[in-house]
């Protein structure tokens, strides 16, 4: 399981714009590099990141080989209700990671 | 191609101009377009020019070395080509500038842009923290035929490892010389855990040193200098000031004399090892101080030292002593 760091405010006022920051450890091997013997290093990247808020998708990003290792994705959303934010990264070689964070909206 | 002409002593601005001129012959164009091309060429040459022209500026012409006698002095003044400037730098061996005064010392952090600083300051945005978390796992994991974890002997790292990284490289009595933090981890692994050593720059070794280093964040760097470590400090200092390699460069020429300048568009920093192991954006990974030193050594075109070489550890010791009192930032982010 890849290591992740998630930053979601614990509490927010209803209607407030909140910043969400996510960081995940991943090599993001482009597939364009060669090893010392000239053999191509196969591509191994995260290709999709999706964030859902109480089951509803609020953010989606497609990642490509030009994204650096350990992708850091930050975005904003409106705090509508208390509940759970779920983050899911999927990628090559069956890579999949899921994280959750809870938020209380007053 | 050295032309011997009787000319007044070369000033630094003339050196700049003549350097540009010697490379501009094939260029046509006038006015702004031409100036832009000149600037382009100058920036390409900046790797060479900045340290060289600056060192000329600070001391108009350095005293001659043995191989160029005083009777050649007038012709030195007339050297106008790029090769000639290289030659003068090569032949001269002036006393290098003084060390940076304590109140002018700056961490690499202060040379960074706002975004990179923000990345380092926020533990959920700092990629080095991923490595610190890995290190925490390794700290508590049993390893080797002794089936012991670091925590079994050392206990809670947040208490027992506080300030430790700020004191490394530290003297090892059994080896009779200072060892780096990475070496200490591997010594512990071999002797206490009876496990194979981690490879240099391996994820595990960097994770453990980042985790141990994190416990000293904000604490002042304080290596122990006493009768036992002083000879190694002096050896490290000698390496820092010694001109070496194909470019005949000393570390001090950039990091003591020219830290206010830029090299290929990037700031030359003062080389204070305040945040190792660092997450370097260029590497897209963590790296130790020795990796960074070996990087610089490649740029200087010096035959490199292997990881863990005594020369590198002595240099580490000197650099940590040079940064004494500055707060540790581990895991730092650098561009």
Q: What is the strand and helix layout of this fold?
A:
The complex is a heterodimer of chains A (106) and B (335).
Chain A lengths: L3 E4 L3 E2 L4 E8 L21 E8 L2 E7 L9 E7 L4 E9 L3 E11 L1
Parallel strand pairs in A: 2-8
Antiparallel strand pairs in A: 1-3, 3-6, 4-5, 4-7, 7-8
Chain B lengths: L11 H11 L8 H14 L1 H13 L14 H5 L4 H10 L22 H8 L6 H13 L9 H5 L2 H4 L9 E3 L4 E3 L1 H13 L9 H12 L15 H12 L9 H5 L6 E2 L2 E2 L10 E3 L4 E3 L1 H11 L10 H13 L10 E2 L1
Parallel strand pairs in B: 5-7
Antiparallel strand pairs in B: 1-2, 3-4, 5-6
Tags for this model:
heterodimer; A: 106 residues; mainly beta; Immunoglobulin-like; 5-stranded mixed β-sheet; 3-stranded antiparallel β-sheet; 53% strand; elongated; B: 335 residues; mainly alpha; Cytochrome Bc1 Complex, Chain D, domain 2; two-stranded antiparallel sheet; 44% helix; globular; disordered N terminus
Stretches with pLDDT under 50, minimum 5 residues of chain B: 1-31, 36-95
Structural class of chain A: mainly beta
CATH architecture of chain A: Sandwich
Query: Which architecture of the largest domain in chain B would the CATH scheme give at its second level?
Result: Orthogonal Bundle
- Got a strand count of chain B? 7
How many structural units, i.e. domains of chain B?
2
Mean pLDDT of chain A: 95
Helix content of chain B: 40-55%
CATH superfamily of the largest domain in chain B: Cytochrome c-like domain
Structural class determined from secondary elements of chain B = mainly alpha
- Choose one word for the global shape of chain B: globular
Largest sheet of chain B: 3 strands, mixed
The major sheet of chain A is characterized as:
5 strands, mixed
- The tally of domains of chain A stands at 1
CA distance, first residue to last residue of chain B:
39 Å
Q: Report strand order across the widest sheet of chain B.
A: 6-5-7
